Amino acid sequence: MFQPKRFLPILVFFLTISLQAQILFERRYGINTDNFEYTGGAALAPDGGMVLYGNTEQGHTLQFFLQKLDTSGVEVWRQEYGQLASGAAAGVVSADGGGYWATGAVLNPADGSYDALLLRTDENGNYLWHKTYGNQATDIGLAICRLAGGQIAVLGSTTMPDNSAAHFQAVFDPAGNLVHSASFAADNEVVDIKATATSDGGYAAVVFAGFDFFSQTSVRAIKYNAAYAQQWSGSVGSMSIYTGSNITDLFDLKATSTGVLFCLQTEAGAHLVHRANGNAAVLWSKRLRSTYTEGRCRAALCKRYDRRGVPFFSLCL
User: Fold this and answer.
1) Amino acid 189: pLDDT
2) Where in the chain is the domain with CATH 2.40.128.630?
3) For the structural domain made of 1-180, what CATH number should be given?
4) Per-residue pLDDT tens over the stretch 140-151
5) Is 150 strand, coil or helix?
């Protein structure tokens, strides 16, 4: 069964760190140790808590779930979505007016392929409806972001008519109607995408293609305007231009006042890269660690940076 690269067969582990690098709480979640729990993303809740979005093992299938936590990490509610076929969760955002939007990939029983998923819930995680996007090929939702006009952008992996690798963008209105879609050629099979809305009404994405140490990987940063057209597209390269080593993973992406900031994992360490909004130029990049095992952006090192990439503090976990 299809399973995105970044999902690991473990119980969900969650850690919260304050701006002063103090651990506020750490908790582990899961039904029991006999079931796999997969997290595809998390979103802040209006009350300051958080929702986790992922999959839980149910027999031979992976069922989607949404789990609400309070500010101390205590579970408030948990919803599972038996209305959906087996699949894999990939991202969740809060919805205007309450509730949540989520994406991923869900099995299409008609042809055995996977379609990209758009799931809509209310503020208590109750299922409202879902939409799918795709064709006869496998289409995998990998990222989701809420745009300034209320639309929802889903980005993911697909293939062109000639079976070459590509990534897609699909934009939906708040009722779930598809208002725009497009596909773009990729250097290799797309395995991860990060996306974030920008202050000009558009959004930015970073697309990671390739699998592991033994295949060529590439990362491309792309900026879309409010009409969903590409403003610029800048390649980070198949080998990191900062270390000369292979790029192995893609982590978070955030919009800044002057561009976008994202984190890459390479064989030689982790890197923060800041690109400008106007022309994709690299404003600065920072290397976080010297080795792969210690350079993980998400867990091995936590740093807070100013606008020039200078760290305020660092915390080894």
Assistant:
1) 85
2) 186-317
3) 2.120.10.10
4) 999 999 998 889
5) coil
Gap between the Cα atoms of 130 and 142, Å rounded: 16
- The lowest-confidence range among 3-7, 169-173, 221-225, 288-292 is 3-7
Whole-model pTM?
A: 0.80
Domain 186-317, what fold? Answer: Lipocalin (2.40.128)
- Distance in angstroms (rounded) separating the CA atoms of residues 109 and 84: 11
Q: Which residue has the tokens 């990191």?
A: 240
**Phi and psi torsions of 125, nearest 5°:** 80, 5
Token pair 């990534």 is found at 167
Q: What is the DSSP string of 12-62?
A: EEEEEE-TTS-EEEEEEE-S-TTS-EEEEEEEE-TTS-EEEEEEEEETTEE
Length of the chain in terms of residues written? 317
- Which positions ≥6 away from 125 have C-beta within 8 Å? 51, 66, 67, 68, 77, 78, 79, 100
CB 144 within 8 A of CB 93: yes
Amino acid at residue number 100: Y
